[in-house]
TrEMBL record:
Lineage: Eukaryota, Viridiplantae, Streptophyta, Embryophyta, Tracheophyta
Species of origin: Phoenix dactylifera
InterPro entries attached to this UniProt entry: Cyt_P450, Cyt_P450_CS, Cyt_P450_E_grp-I, Cyt_P450_sf
Gene: LOC103702716
GO BP annotations listed: brassinosteroid biosynthetic process; brassinosteroid homeostasis; sterol metabolic process
Name of this protein: Cytochrome P450 90B1-like
Entry's Gene Ontology molecular function annotations: heme binding; iron ion binding; monooxygenase activity; oxidoreductase activity, acting on paired donors, with incorporation or reduction of molecular oxygen
Keyword presence, Heme: yes
Cofactor: heme
Subcellular location, principal: membrane
Subcellular localization, as worded in the UniProt entry: Membrane
Amino acid sequence: MALELLLVLSPAIIALILIFRFKSSSRTDGKSTKLPPGNLGWPLIGETISFMQPHSSASLGAFMAEHIAKYGRIFRTNLLGKATIVSADPEFNRFILQSEGRLFENSCPTSIKEIMGPWSMLALAGDAHKEMRSIAVNFMSNVKLRTFFLPDIEKQALEVLHSWEDRSTFSAQEEGKKFAFNLMVKHLMSLDPGMPETEQLRLEYHAFMKGMASIPLNLPGTAYRKALQSRAIILKIMGQKLEERIQKVNDKCEGLEEDDLLASVSRNTNLSKEQILDLILSMLFAGHETSSAAIALAIYFLESCPKAVQQLKEEHEEIARLKKERGETGLNWDDYKQMKFTHCVINETLRLGNIVKFLHRKAITDVQFKGYHIPCGWEVVPIISAAHLDPSIYDDPQRYNPWRWLQAISANLTKNSNVMSFSGGPRLCPGAELAKLEIAVFLHHLVRRYQWEVAEHDYPVSFPFLGFPKGLRIKVRLLQ
C-alpha cells in the first residue's frame, strides 16, 4: 500500500520540486532584470516532445511560432529536464555565438556525446575544442582545397553523375550522401569507393546516423543501441587504418600519404588514439551531413525555379567554353571564384533550407540581455534558422530567390552576420568553404548534363537533422 501511494505521489512530488527549482532560479538577487517569460511544460520532459516535432525546414515549426506569439522571441522552457532559454532573436543569437568561452560554452546533450565520443568537436569546449578545431582548419585550408580537394571533388562528382541513366528515377538525397561520403573517407583515410572497408563503413554509418536523432535508450533493439554498436565497428575500422599509418611513420616508409588526415595527425600531433578516432568520426559526420543535405536541397529548390536553373546553366556553359578555348581540362580555383550566380544559389539554399536548426549552449556566468536575466548554468538554445526566416531581414523570406544575394556576391561581400548556416564565432564550422566548393562543383556538372524533375511530392523536414521523408526521388533526362 505504501509503495502504491509512493508511485501515485511521485509525479506530484517531482513536479513540485521542478516548480520550486524554477521559481528559485527566477530570483535575481536584487537585480532589476528578470527571467524571460515561458512555460515549464510536463515534469522532467518539459516541452521536449513538442520542441522536437518534425516540421518543414523552411519554417520555424508550430512550437516556435506558438511560443513566439505568446512570449516573444526569447522565452524559457524545460528541455530534456533542464532549465532552458530558447532564443529566436537574431541579435541575441549572434551575441551567444560571439561570446563563446566568455559567457557561454558548448553544451552538447549527453546522448550525442556518447554516440560521437568524448573527444568529438561536437562535445568539446574550451582549449580542447580549440586544439581539435585547429587541426581541422589546417587540414581544410584554402591551399589544400585548391590542390588536394578540388580535383578529387570533381572526380567524385562525375563518378556519381555518370552513373545516372537517362530517364531513370532515384533518390537524390542518397546520391548526395554517396558523393559526400566517398569524398570524406578518401581524404580522411585514403579509402576509395568500392573498397570493402568503404562499403562496410557506409553501412555502419547509416545505422549510426539513425541513432543520432533517436530517444537515448540503451536497450536491445533500439536505434540508440544500434548506433553505439555501429560506432564501435566504425572505430575498429578506423583504428586499423590508424595502426597502419603509425606503423609506416615508425618505419619511416617512403610514399606515406600526406594528404589524408590520418597521416597528418600520425606525424604532426601528440593526440591519443582515442582522440584521433573521435576527431576523424566527427569530421566524417560534419563533412558528410552538411554537404549531402545542401546538394539535395539545391536540387529540390532549383526544380521549382527554372529561371535559376537556366541562369546557372548559362554561367557554367560559359566557364566550360572558356576552358575549352584555353585547352584546359578540369575545374580550378579561378573557375570556382567566377561562379557568381552559383554562390547566390548556394547562399539561398543554405538560408531557406536550414540544415541546422538550433545549437546547444550553456551560460557559464550570469548574463543580462535586453532586460532579461540568464542565470549561470542554464541551457541556452539559439534557433539559428530564425534569422534566415525573419521578414525584417529578408524580403519575402519564404520565397526561394537566389538573386537576393547578387549584389553582395558581386561586391565580394562574403560575410553576412545574419547567415548562421555554419554556426559562428569561435565554433564556426572549419569545413564551411569545403562544403560550398562541393556544392558548386556538383552543380557545375549537374546543370550541364541533366534536366530533372521531382518524381513524387516531398519536402525537406527538420528531424531535428534535415532530411527528405521520401528521399527526394527525382527523374533525370540526359541533355543532348
